[in-house]
Design a protein that fits this description.
Length: 373
């Protein structure tokens, strides 16, 4: 069964936009394998918008652009699979894709068959140019039905940006993950807006259908298609920590052929990924500090009885993070303390009774795995 845990992979859009090609995909596949990203869990390699010709062929099928993909999609898919990766593609529920290419409206079943024939394992399904006369949920239900009956297991990645109150119905369309916000940009304000907009909505994300807070911008540093400003390494750590704690799919969006050491360290932080990939898939709940509402504490209940605990400073100045254990249900009278392991420093941070307090730089975070002792 697909998406038992939040899907992980790489997507071409954030950095490359329309500038995609077989060459890029082949080298990215090589790099996913050689860099250790695949071993860390990143298994889907997804080609986003702008891969097709503007016209379908005479049998009504989508055709890959022969300049970008001279050997067709089956060849690309075979190469991706030969590296032990899974292959993802993109289409849209409206009359055209967001980039102006042919979409799957009224072609859902033939397109699902085409994708299955190419060996596609993942379909991102966008929402631009949606016709007025058909409710959005029907369009996703149609494609969900078409994929399930395509003869291949294809993970359905819905992308309607949280419109039409999709939290309430998207799971029943067959979607395995669903975009709940507008497009991310490579800057702090965008990361902050997305994260805050999905707080207190943890009930909507669970195994087999996860809340997708959009692709990661970690490592873009202001270069590429959605690179509007760039972030510091510290901000990328906070971004990655939030996406892990909130059970978002982890789809890398930077150019992994040129990752620096900081970016590798962030994307391959196995202790943080373990929070995100916990089999029970319980997304974090929020505690707000009464004395500083801009410091958010996230608590993620883990299947082994431990907790992920994250302190996030959304403010523009240094701040204190302080957790009273009583606020997560742990009373002093229980006799228990919390033993904290720092998941960025990869070391034990001590045993605490009743509360824990730390200092946080602007836009920074601390994330712990806490065990009752
Ligand atoms: C929309 C989606 C993006 C990307 C582009 C492609 O904006 O939200 O993630 O797929 O379309 O055109």
């Amino acid at each position: 069964m697909l998406a038992q845990r939040p899907p992980m992979g790489w997507n071409s859009w954030n950095t490359f936009g329309w500038q995609i090609s077989e060459d890029l995909i082949v080298h990215t596949a090589d790099q996913m394998k050689e860099s250790g990203l695949l071993d860390a869990g990143y298994e889907y390699l997804v080609i986003d918008d702008c891969w097709a010709l503007k016209q379908r062929n005479e049998s009504g099928r989508l055709v890959p652009d022969p300049i970008k993909f001279p050997n067709g999609m089956k060849a690309v898919s075979d190469y991706v699979h030969s590296k032990g990766l899974k292959f993802g593609m993109y289409s849209c529920a409206g009359t055209m894709t967001c980039g102006g290419y042919p979409s799957s409206l009224e072609h859902e079943f033939i397109d699902a068959k085409t994708f299955a024939g190419w060996g596609v394992d993942f379909l991102k399904y966008d929402y631009c140019y949606k016709p007025q006369n058909i409710p959005g949920h029907i369009l996703y239900k149609r494609m969900g039905m078409a994929l399930k009956n395509s003869g291949r297991d294809i993970l359905f990645s819905a992308c309607n940006w949280g419109s039409d109150e999709c939290d309430k119905w998207i799971r029943s369309s067959g979607a395995h993950m669903y975009r709940s916000t507008g497009d991310i940009q490579d800057n702090w304000q965008s990361i902050k807006n997305i994260a805050l907009s999905r707080m207190d909505k943890e009930c909507y994300s669970a195994p087999y259908c996860y809340d997708d807070m959009d692709m990661l911008v970690v490592g873009m540093y202001g270069k590429g298609n959605v690179a509007l400003g760039g972030c510091s390494t510290e901000e990328y750590k906070t971004h990655f920590s939030l996406w892990c704690m909130m059970d978002s799919p982890l789809m890398i969006g930077c150019d992994i052929r040129n990752m620096n050491e900081d970016v590798r360290t962030i994307l391959m932080n196995k202790e943080l990924i373990a929070l995100n990939q916990d089999p029970e898939g319980r997304a974090s709940y929020r505690l707000t500090q009464w004395n500083n509402p801009e410091v958010t504490i996230l608590i993620k209940p883990m299947s082994d009885g431990s907790f992920g605990i994250g302190f996030f400073n959304f403010s523009d100045s240094d701040a204190e993070g302080s957790l009273q254990f009583w606020d997560m249900g742990l009373e002093t009278s229980s006799g228990y303390s919390l033993s904290l392991r720092d998941l960025w420093e990869h070391e034990e941070a001590g045993v605490y009774k009743e509360n824990y307090t730390c200092r946080l730089k602007a836009h920074a975070c601390k994330v712990f795995r806490a065990k009752l002792v």
